TrEMBL record:
Residues 117-249 form the Methionyl/Leucyl tRNA synthetase domain. It comes from Phaseolus angularis (Azuki bean). Its EC number is 6.1.1.4. This is leucine--tRNA ligase. The keyword Aminoacyl-tRNA synthetase applies. Residues 718-749 form the Aminoacyl-tRNA synthetase class Ia domain. Residues 299-492 form the Leucyl-tRNA synthetase editing domain. GO terms for molecular function: aminoacyl-tRNA deacylase activity; ATP binding; leucine-tRNA ligase activity.
Length: 1020
């Protein structure tokens, strides 16, 4: 405790604001060793000893630097998220806070439809990669609600499909039981993360009320000749027991499960005539706000009606054929003589077999770098193309020439075959690559049939040149591009060096767990008869044995009583279709059902579709950039043609979030004696030889990572996509338990740009958790001694300073701009900068703090709701107006209510300001920040509102002002000074006048005691 005899060598200064201060002075019987002065700051060598009010309500920072106290607290004690988050989740659910109005909607308000690509509910549940996109859409949804929009933000389940059926076969549990159990788990996990979904609109593709309308759409396709049966060669997967579409086969294995796929003789299959819409699907891409790389992938996939897969033999070091072939897909088979190199994706399964020893280190480094990028980063058209030569060659099947094989990240392993034949003379991207790496260029198409070097890629059609090889029986010189393409495809199929690419959508699956196809076949004539719409839904029958038959006969053929039926009109015996629809069917139109989920008479009501359509923002993984989006666009255009929807496209803006990679793993090898050694390039291509080193045994040395106990052993650092097989999956439930849902949400947005791939780091989430803890302490306070927190908060209702206004308004502008641009990480940075500044303020006006809580709320809704409540508000902040940018200048912002902060004034965003020193009676008492063109009157007003300067000016009579623009403001006061000595008063007036702010006490007081000070202040 501070004693008055310790104050003797100090200068005493009392602020004019001291009239508000209560001084509990002791009686004369109190000893000098037990004073009760409310001292809050003492500075040796300074000109002041301050007494500050502790009785008034004020938002005070308990730790000035905002960090020292936290270091003494366990990370999970930063704030009481364990109590806050369940509390507000219950509140939102009980009050249906995020229910989107249905029939009672006010259609005069603007709408905002933000949608996640709904998940397949796997048994593994969510991992931390899933909430990345979900958090982004939730921030947008909350933001738009606060801006006054009607927001549609629903969630549902893409629940039919092979994974559930495979699991059911392995465990003997019916797929419906496992699917429903998985859905319940997913729903619980999503709710624990505080996502503001309207759960009243929840849908699942396995519910008959839903797939009734999937079947109805199929009937409309059938009526218009867009669904048809054909005998087509198929991709048969024995392990899955079903036919797969070309899009579901990658490098000879199934997309799901990686099972071998073989080419089988023609089978009767249902096909959807997507090629009939090819032109419209291409043309309408130009009007969409999609990533250009996604649109380009769709253009390439739609391509032309004819395409081909070509086989290229790999050559050994002697130039002889190896028993390895690379399959490439091309939409321009007529240019095959101009293919001067091949490019494979970094993740191509054959890559390890294609790399020479000399090139292995270069390839390994390149592949490692490529795996850290998202598909969108890799395919960005404006990005300079990079690659590495593998050291291996392939043989061009048309001319027999050896051409180099390169690995490049602009080719994606999950797109097409993961390999392309590069024809630099006739593809701009290939041309740039060839120029950069000095690869040969051969022109094989010219406008007039004359061989010429154009100096750039010629991408158009024309007459074929330089394209003849009698040894293989192929000569297309002089043919038009279209004629040559057909000739090359026919030659490839006959010679076994390629095949025609199927372009229409193979729609049937020989599996049980899918939507039944609503047609029957008449037993007496074989005629295909669609069901009547009144017979929908055609319910999927219960089966005890739903395993594949192994013969190609679908599992539904086992449901004999269901299969054998009769035509409802004629009564003639008939047989039901036993194939089911593919998993894609239910996900092609679900966005429409969310608009009107309980409508039993229509797929979607016309008024609701006109209001909500199209989806404003659609967020999901880049792996769906082609297939799902293409099929959904196809169905949507059909529905547009028949008058069900009013828009030509379903999704106006598509955003592909990046992937979250597992934590960095450090790897080394062991030698023959079992000793650790650096991982060489050859071992890196064979992960079975690598051993993972725990992070605590690793240290950084320059640009490398080494073993702590032996720095000579260089380790290889790599981050992989999360998967159970690698053991690097992080469960969000564990993160929420340790750090809270708001910390997880905030961290996933802070890791980096939404569209980029990012590496998970536990230390990173601790950082944002500390930020939330600092926010809590600024507003609520520090934990009490028993570990609990104060119930309620304190605030000060006073005008913000110019500094506080400038800081807040810059934060409003930045956060608003970055949410609109989905640059959430930089929005968080702006809030962190604001918090750092706020910790330096002596006081924190309620209006400023409340505005900051609103800015934080889309990111960390649980904490924001709790802070909003503790600031005295009884209603949720979910629909409180978001602070917005204001056009123009206005001084009404200097009100002491929240309303003044709801708009960010450009006045406070300008940087054309100067720091103006302010003198009182010739002595500098502080500074103010003013515009360079600030007038004398404006400068004086700002000075009088400044917290430090106002105590000199409040209630004073100003004799004159001296103002030099941009240099200084000197205010000369008409006032009297009272000088005091122990036990006496000057000028015959009591010093109590000082407490009214009308005079100044200034004197060196040696030997002053508590009784002397009591006498000075009271006159007693």
């Amino acid at each position: 405790m501070l004693h008055t005899h310790q104050l003797q060598p100090y200068f005493l200064f009392l602020s004019p604001h001291s009239h508000t201060v209560s001084f509990p002075f002791p009686s004369r019987t109190t000893t000098s060793h037990s004073p009760r002065f409310p001292v809050t700051s003492i500075r040796r060598g300074s000109s002041s000893l301050r007494f500050r009010n502790r009785g008034r309500a004020s938002i005070s920072n308990s730790v000035a630097d905002g960090g020292t106290e936290h270091q003494k607290q366990p990370v999970n004690r930063a704030y009481p998220f364990h109590e806050i988050e369940p509390k507000w989740q219950r509140f939102w659910e009980h009050n249906r806070t995020f229910r989107t109005p249905d029939d009672d909607i006010d259609t005069t308000k603007p709408k905002y439809y933000v949608l996640d690509m709904f998940p397949y509910p796997s048994g593994a549940g969510l991992h931390v990669g899933h909430p990345l996109g979900y958090t982004a859409t939730d921030i947008l949804a909350r933001f738009k609600r606060m801006q006054g929009y009607n927001v549609l933000h629903p969630m549902g389940w893409d629940a039919f499909g092979l994974p559930a059926e495979q699991y059911a076969i392995e465990t003997g549990t019916h797929p419906k039981l496992t699917t429903v159990r998985n859905i319940n788990r997913f729903r619980t996990q999503l709710k624990s993360l505080g996502f503001s979904y309207d759960w009243d609109r929840e849908i699942s593709t396995i519910e008959p009320d839903y797939y009734k309308w999937t079947q109805w759409i199929f009937l409309q396709l059938l009526k218009r000749g867009l669904a048809y049966q054909a005998e087509v060669p198929v991709n048969w997967c024995p392990a899955l027991g079903t036919v797969l579409a070309n899009e579901e086969v990658i490098d000879g294995v199934s997309e799901r499960g990686g099972h071998p796929v073989i080419r089988k003789q023609p089978m009767r299959q249902w096909m959807l005539k997507i090629t009939a819409y090819a032109d419209r699907l291409l043309e309408d891409l130009d009007d969409l706000d999609w990533p250009e790389s996604v649109k380009e992938m769709q253009r390439n996939w739609i391509g032309r009606s004819e395409g081909a897969e070509m086989e290229f033999c790999i050559l050994d070091s002697d130039g002889k054929d190896r028993d390895i072939k690379i399959i490439v897909y091309t939409t321009r088979p007529e240019t095959i003589f101009g293919a001067t190199y091949l490019v494979v994706a970094p993740e191509h399964p054959l890559l390890p077999s294609l790399v020479s020893i000399a090139q292995s280190k270069h390839v390994e480094d390149y592949v490692d770098l490529a795996t850290r990028k998202s598909d969108l980063e890799r395919t960005e058209l404006q990005k300079e193309k990079t690659g590495v030569f593998t050291g291996c060659y392939a043989k061009n099947p048309a001319n027999g020439e050896a051409i180099p094989i390169w690995v490049a990240d602009y080719v994606l392993g999950g797109y097409g075959t993961g390999a392309i034949m590069a024809v630099p003379a006739h593809d701009s991207r290939d041309y740039d690559f060839a120029q950069k790496y000095d690869v040969p260029i051969c022109w094989v198409v010219t406008p007039d049939g004359k061989s010429v070097d154009f100096g750039k890629a010629f991408n158009g059609e024309g007459i074929i040149v330089n394209s003849s090889n009698t040894l293989v029986g192929l000569d297309i010189n002089g043919l038009s591009s279209k004629e040559a393409a057909l000739t090359v495809i026919e030659w490839a199929e006959k010679s076994g060096k390629g095949k025609r690419k199927l372009r229409d959508w193979l729609f049937a699956r020989q599996r049980y767990w899918g939507e039944p196809i609503p047609v029957i076949f008449m037993d007496d004539s074989g005629e295909t008869v669609p069901l009547y719409e009144t017979e929908l839904p055609l319910i999927l029958p219960e089966l005890d044995d739903f395993s594949p038959t192994g013969t190609g006969e679908p599992p539904l053929s086992k449901a004999v009583s269901w299969v054998k039926t009769a035509d409802s009109l004629s009564g003639r015996p008939a047989t039901r279709e036993t194939n089911t629809m593919p998993q894609w069917a239910g996900s092609c139109w679900y966005y429409l059902r969310f608009m009107d989920p309980h409508n039993s008479k229509e797929l979607v009501g016309k008024a609701k579709e006109r209001y909500w359509g199209p989806v404003d923002v659609y967020v999901g993984g880049a792996e769906h950039a082609v297939l799902h989006l293409l099929y959904a666009r196809f169905w949507h255009k059909v529905l547009f043609d028949i008058g069900v929807v009013s828009t030509k496209e379903p999704f106006q803006c598509v955003i592909n979030q990046g992937i979250i990679l597992g934590e960095v793993q450090y790897m080394a090898c062991r030698d023959q004696d079992g000793n650790l050694m650096s991982a060489d390039s050859t071992d890196l291509l064979n992960e079975r030889k690598l051993e993972i080193i725990p992070a605590e045994k690793v240290m950084k040395s320059g640009d490398s990572f080494v073993l702590k106990e032996n720095p000579n052993i260089r380790l290889h650092a790599r981050a992989h996509k999360m998967s159970k097989s690698r053991g690097n999956v992080v469960n969000p439930d564990d993160v929420v338990s340790e750090y809270g849902a708001d910390s997880l949400r905030l961290y996933e947005m802070f890791m980096g740009p939404l569209r980029d791939s990012k590496t998970w780091s536990t230390s990173g989430i601790e950082g944002v958790h500390r930020f939330l803890g600092r926010t809590w302490r600024l507003i609520v306070g520090s934990p009490l001694s028993d570990g609990t927190f104060k119930d309620g908060t304190v605030s000060v209702d006073e005008e913000p300073t110019l500094e506080q206004l400038r800081c807040l308004h810059k934060c409003i502008a930045k956060v608003t701009e970055e949410i609109e641009g989905t640059r959430f990480n930089t929005g968080i940075s702006a809030m962190m900068e604001f918090l750092n500044a706020a910790y330096k303020w002596d006081k924190h006006p309620r209006s400023v703090i409340e505005a900051f809580v609103l800015l934080l709320s889309p990111y960390a809704p649980h904490m924001a709701e709790e802070l909003w409540s503790r600031l005295g508000h009884r209603k949720s902040l979910a629909y409180v107006p978001f602070p917005k940018l204001q056009q123009g200048r206005g001084h009404s912002l200097l009100l002491v209510t929240l309303e003044f902060i709801l708009e960010a004034n450009p006045t406070y965003l300008k940087d054309s300001t100067v720091v103006l020193p302010v003198q009182i009676n010739g002595k500098t008492r502080g500074t103010i920040e003013v515009e360079e063109t600030c007038s004398e009157e404006e400068a004086f007003v700002l000075a009088s509102r400044d917290e430090k300067l106002s105590k000199y000016l409040d209630g004073q009579s100003v004799k004159k002002r001296i103002y030099v623009p941009g240099k200084i403001l000197n205010v000369v006061l008409d006032r009297e000074n009272i000088y005091a000595v122990p036990g006496r008063l000057g000028n015959g007036r009591r010093v109590m006048a000082l407490l009214d702010g009308k005079c100044e006490l200034a004197q060196y007081l040696p030997g002053m005691t508590v009784y002397d000070l009591y006498t000075i202040l009271t006159g007693a």
